[in-house]
Amino acid sequence: MTASELAEKSKPAFKALAPLEAVLFDVDGTLCDSDPIHHIAFKEMLLEIGFNNGVPIDEDFFVKNIAGKHNDDIAAVLFPDDIERGLKFCVDKEAYFRKLVKEKVEPIKGLYKLTKWIEDNGLKRAAVTNAPRSNAELMISTLDLTDFFHHVIIGDECEHPKPAPDPYLKAVELLNVSKDHTFICEDSVSGIKAGVAAGMPVVGLTTRNPESMLLTANPTLLIENYEDPKLWAVLEELGKKTGDA
């Protein structure tokens, strides 16, 4: 199935959301294209310790083993024989990542058009991420979205992080909205699976991960970025119904 065929099939799922109450966003790769910054941080720090016999990790390795995953899972992949060392490595890597963010982070194309639409329609909103709180809040602040989000939910602060549904279920609970009137924006297989498991339609972004990979997680809609006409066809219809309600 292509993204266009999926868009046609998804219309009833989005129509059923009216009146729309809330929109939930992942952070990495969904608000900003931060995966290249994570890749740089991992690549440089793994080189320093001679990982993979000193051969730098490529983008393919990064996408398959690191992107969108919780640090516990990353530590297990990179250091299967010494998880404690892996967890310490991930903490140090996050500190280096935060230094890089201030120089390199940029919003996903069309993000501010979407945030304005959400504000104009009086919708509630939360950021839901597996990133450490310090990373998430730095990225949100750097994008000038601190006041936009009503809550920031962190996977580590829930019973189970993504791909479990817990972080998204916590978001609707904190926002005091119905999951039947909320949709999610995500860019990774892990994140899409979490949203689907939570029982909400998920808009998948092909920021870094290919369509074919994201389709395995059953998103409701796939878009290139927030200027994608497929997204606005859905939102315009929803906006009318939300306003009528």
Give the topology.
Blueprint: H1 3-15, E1 22-25, H2 35-48, H3 59-65, H4 71-78, H5 83-104, H6 111-120, E2 124-129, H7 133-142, E3 151-154, H8 166-175, E4 182-186, H9 189-197, E5 202-205, H10 211-215, E6 221-223, H11 229-244
Parallel strand pairs: 1-2, 1-4, 2-3, 4-5, 5-6
Description of the molecule:
The chain is built from eleven helices and six strands. Helix 9 (189-197) links the parallel strand 4 (182-186) and strand 5. A six-stranded parallel beta sheet has the order 3-2-1-4-5-6, sandwiched between helices. It has helices spanning 3-15, 35-48, 59-65, 71-78, 83-104, 111-120, 133-142, 166-175, 189-197, 211-215, 229-244, and strands spanning 22-25, 124-129, 151-154, 182-186, 202-205, 221-223. The chain has 245 residues and is of the alpha/beta class. Helix 1 runs parallel beside helix 11 (229-244) and helix 2 (35-48) packs across helix 5 (83-104).
